[in-house]
Amino acid sequence: MSDKELEGKLDQAKGKVKEEVGKMTNDSSTEAEGKADQAEGKIKEGLGEAKRKIKNTFDGK
């Protein structure tokens, strides 16, 4: 797993916590921020995975 993939997973986890806090406190802004953080994390994870796969292909792994 690449650093970018790990960073993406951490962003997703933080976003999920933020989303749940927003739900519990009826703060729609915080809930929306959490969902946005999760989406950003998924993108980072996907880019990291693609980069790793490309590198592995050219490295012959």
TrEMBL record:
<protein>
    <recommendedName>
        <fullName>CsbD-like domain-containing protein</fullName>
    </recommendedName>
</protein>
<feature type="region of interest" description="Disordered">
    <location>
        <begin position="1"/>
        <end position="61"/>
    </location>
</feature>
<feature type="compositionally biased region" description="Basic and acidic residues">
    <location>
        <begin position="32"/>
        <end position="61"/>
    </location>
</feature>
<dbReference type="Pfam" id="PF05532">
    <property type="entry name" value="CsbD"/>
</dbReference>
<comment type="similarity">
    <text>Belongs to the UPF0337 (CsbD) family.</text>
</comment>
<feature type="compositionally biased region" description="Basic and acidic residues">
    <location>
        <begin position="1"/>
        <end position="22"/>
    </location>
</feature>
<dbReference type="InterPro" id="IPR050423">
    <property type="entry name" value="UPF0337_stress_rsp"/>
</dbReference>
<feature type="domain" description="CsbD-like">
    <location>
        <begin position="5"/>
        <end position="55"/>
    </location>
</feature>
<dbReference type="InterPro" id="IPR036629">
    <property type="entry name" value="YjbJ_sf"/>
</dbReference>
<dbReference type="InterPro" id="IPR008462">
    <property type="entry name" value="CsbD"/>
</dbReference>
